Every structure is written in C-alpha cells, then in structure tokens.
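Bench notes, bay 3.
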Amino acid sequence: MADLTKKIGDLDVFPLALGGNVFGWTAGRDASFAILDAYAEGGGDFVDTADSYSWWVGGNRGGESEEIIGEWLASRGGRDRMVIATKVGVHPEHKGLSATTIKEAAEDSLRRLRTDHIDLYYTHFDDPSVPVGEIITALDGLVREGKVRQIGVSNIELDRLEESLAFSDREGLAKYVAIQPEYNLVAREGYEGERMRVAERHGLAAVPYYGLASGFLTGKYRPGVTVDSARAGKAGPLLETERGRRVLAALDEIAGARGIAMATVALAWLRARPTVAAPIASARTVEQLPALMAVAGTVLTGEEVASLTAASE
C-alpha cells in the first residue's frame, strides 16, 4: 500500500489513523488487540492515542490506552513499521505544558508504550499560562534526545499557534508538522478559514479528530432508532438539526450509488479537503473496521465532493 501513504513531516502514514481513545474504555484488552491486529493486517500503520485515555472511566487513572498499545506492540513486534502518535497535557498527574510536565509525561508515555521513541507527539490542549517558547523548547529537547520524532498540536487558539510556529522558525527549533482539529461534515467552522490557511502556509498536515462526528456520520442515528453507544449523547442531537439531516441525505445518496458505507464516504470527503493527511476514526469492534479502512481506496469525484460540501454548509 505504499502508493496510498500520506506525509506528516518525514513520517509516511496510512491515510486512516486508528483512534485509540476506545482502548480501555468501550474496548477491553482482548477487543483492542483484535482491532489493532485487523488494522495492521489491512495495511494500517498509524495509531493515535493520548496519555490521558481513558481517565474518565470509573477506576481508571489515565494511560490505559497507551498501556494496551504498548502491550500489543511488545507482543506482536514490528514497532518500526508502526507510527505511534500520543499527546501531552491532560493526564491527571501531568496537567498543563510546563517544561517539567512535558518531560515527565513523555517519560511515562514511553514507559507505557514500551518503546524508546514516540513518532508524533502532540500538545493535547494549549496551556496559556506557559510561554510558547518554553513549550517548543521542551518539545525540541525531546526531539534532540531521540525520544520524539515529530511534534504536533491539537486544541490551540490561532494566535498562540502562529506565535509557536514563528518561535520555531526564529530559533531554529523543532516545529509543529501536524495539527489535530475537530473537523467533519457537521463541524467545519473551527478549522476552515484562517486556521486552515495557516496550516497550508506552514506545511502542517491535518489529522482531524471526530471525523465521524461521534458516529453520527455512519448513518446509524435515525429518527425513532435508539443507539446503544457511549457517544449517543453527542451524536444523537445532530439528527435534530437541518444541517445534520441534509448531510445524512447526501451521504445516503452517494453511499447507495457506490455500494459502500456512509462512514467511508464521510471520511473520503475529509481526505479530499486541503491539508488533510489522515482523519482519525476509532472502532470498538473488528466488524466496524472495514468501513473505516476502505477510505484508503476511495476517491470521490469532484461532483460528489461538491454535493457533500454544499449539504454541510
């Protein structure tokens, strides 16, 4: 599948990042191993997690997802063919982005992941109390030590993002190569516009989270249908919006004409957007995975992209 890979800095990645937020939450160890096995066997090599996943589950402390991924990597081998992305800033024991916090959190992530390097290390949420220079310098130190290959940024205000990129350029330090925004057919405003233009100017690859809007864009949420999902509270209300109904109708039409899953079409639209390298999507069962991975071989026509874009305005 070499012809399908995308570039994030100097990293070659499969065009669908497997979300690890479900590992240790809605997918236990055995189910997580099965999902990771199926993803890798299908050519996938890009796994996204965070040091805080899944602290919100009763009895969890944070880091469960990393531990599962680390155990899987150790048991399966082939670490060098996988691209592992994780994040810093939200773990209950490592909140914020001070230089000390970043260094300590990275060491804990490396231990849980059972590896000597993190391929892509994101700041999970910005910490405005810390100067961007301190954050970038700390991340640069990890890169220089060989503990991190590339750095990325997730939730951050535009002015702080631009300040961070300018600092890296001015000081000749490690620079963000990836941005992870919330971005999908029913959530476009937060990324499109100036944020996307900044990404284009600086060569940042976008790796959108909530690519399927918490499952809404799979089409399983319909009037009168009760969905057994931990994310129903977020996805369900979208059905009550005119925009949500328009998007579902457009997805239905294209998916039906092509004979593919709505999830595949929704992710393919994201892949067609400027700057996007690989949307993130998670599966809590192996059966959910094929529709996600099919995005690698799905290219929408200009007319299909335009139809979905218009429906999501």
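Next record in the batch:
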Amino acid sequence: MRLVEVLAALAFLVIATIAVFMIAPNAITSASGDAGEWTQTESGPLGPADRDFLVKVRQAGLWEIPTGQQAQERSNNPRVKEVGLQLAADHVKLDEQVRALSAKLGVQLPSTPNADQQGWMAELSGLSGTAYDKVFADRLRGAHGKVFQAVAVVRAGTKNSEIRAFAQVAVDVVMKHMSLLESTGKVDFAALPTPPPPSPNPAK
C-alpha cells in the first residue's frame, strides 16, 4: 500500500506541474502587482510596456499641467502663454482618461512627476521673461520627443485593444504639442538628440 501511495503522489505532482506550464503566462498574476507580469483583461493581455505607457502619460500631465499654467505668469510672450494654456488643457483631458483606464485595468499610477520632471519644474520656477520662454520650449519639446518614442512603440505592438486606442489618442496629442512648441520659435533644434542611424536591411 505504501508503494501505491507514493506512486499516486508522484502522479499527482506530475499532473499538477504540467497543468501549471499549460496555463498561458498572460493569465498569471500575483498579489504583488509586479510591473514585469502579464495579466489578462477583457480587452486583451496587458504587459509591462502597457503599464509603463500609462505611467508615462500620467507623469507627463503631472508636470505639464502646472507648467502650462505657470507660463501665464512667467512669460511675457503671447504665443508662449497660448501654447502653455493649450498644453495644460489637453493634459487635463488626457489625465482624466489615463486615470479612468488605469483604474479599469488595475494599474497603479504615480501621484508625483519623476525626478527629471521635478528638476525641470524647479529650473523654470527660477526664470521669467525671455529666459523662461527658451527653457519652457526646450524642456517641453525635448520631453515630448522622448515620450513620443515610447508611445509609438506601444501603439505598434500592444496586444490590448484599449491600450491601443488610448495610445493612438496619446500619439496625436504628443504630435500636436511638438508642433505647438515649435510654433513659439523658441525651440533650439540643435540641442535635440540626433536620431539613431537606420538599421541595416535584414538578410534575405
């Protein structure tokens, strides 16, 4: 009887192990909410890049809304003030959307800008007039260029339909804001990062 019991236990372990590996990785989650996990949602799998995208959109609003409002007091340039108001207004709407979508998908969002953004805000708080205008345009234009790359990658490859739809909205907003900032005439294009060289053609 003891041998039979041992064999039965081994058989159970083998079956249980096979069952675990047969479960799709996208359906496995843990209580820790590890950012490296894949989770299954009604709109499809949700991965690390999807969650990072939502975090980046949230943090963009956390510094661009107050900065756009700040421009009304720190700048003397009518166009810079106009662009600041538009950026702030667009991010208020975008922030409402990202918070609603994140709550639906179970993604925790930050409540403060990241370290770089806090540094830019501190820098701008010490400036006014034409000096403010230049740094305002350069910091915001540079930041939009970086986030555009991240959003475009998610838009191209996400497996989640709701993330895909929201990424399209975000791409449109980022493109609009880059153009608005460039319209101030204050962007130092020479200071923008050089695009990477094109990748070689894949071997046939």
